[in-house]
Every structure is written in structure tokens, then in C-alpha cells.
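Q: Focus on the chain.
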Amino acid sequence: MQQGTVTNLHIARVKGTPSDPVQAATAISGLGLEGDRSAYEGNARQVLFMDKETIDEFELAPGQLKENITTTGIDLSATKVGQVFFVGDEATLEIVGDCVACGKMDALRLGLKDKIDGRRGMLAMVINGGSIKVGDSIRVEP
């Protein structure tokens, strides 16, 4: 079992604008994070996890890759579809797949799309809602 910590939280309210950093967010079962533009019924791409180690390696800032939850201590590349993340005391999220690097990466830095391909983070759906805060622990169950 992997364990880590939430280092940053971001809510993307409006497409094409920077995500807002927050200290706490509410995960809503079957929807995503309250106030996020990806939080709607039927969306499988509700929450994006990204590890701070990769963000630091590419000299980016948390939230710049549009992730909602930035982690440390978890090797996201070792996670698989169907695994469950237990975040804090309440929220559980199920991994639904990789976030594929797109052309927006090259808008941040030319060539970033190819360099970060395969390490762009993991998408998840909220299974059980609850409060998520910066500093919360994360457990990944096999």
C-alpha cells in the first residue's frame, strides 16, 4: 500500500483560466470537487491527481498542469485503473485512467507535451464524498 500527502488543492472554475488554489475542498459523490468545472454528472474525468515530484522535476508550479489534487510520496505511475485513493478521513476516489498529455502542455513550455507524456497524472471519480484539506493523508489500496 502506498501512502502520501495532499500538498496542494486547486479548483478550476472557468475553462481557459488559471485554477484557484484552496486550502480545503468538498468532494461530492459521483460529481467531483464542488465548484470545479469538471464536477457534473456523467463525467468520468472528475478529479486530476498529480505528484509534486514530477511538477518540481519540470520546474512547474502546483496547479499549473490543471491538477486538482497535488500529492507527495505517491508514485502515480505505479497506480492502476480501479485502485482506490482514500483521502483524509472521508473521501474515496477511484482511478479511471491516465491523463494524456495534450497540446496545452506545449502552451506552458514548448516540448513539454512529449517530455511529460505518460506522467501527466491520474484521473479519478469520487466514490464517497467528503472534505479534503491540504495536509491530508492519502492511502492507495491495491
Remarks:
- The domain at 2-141 is CATH 2.40.33.20 (M1 Pyruvate Kinase; Domain 3).
- The chain has one domain: 2-141.
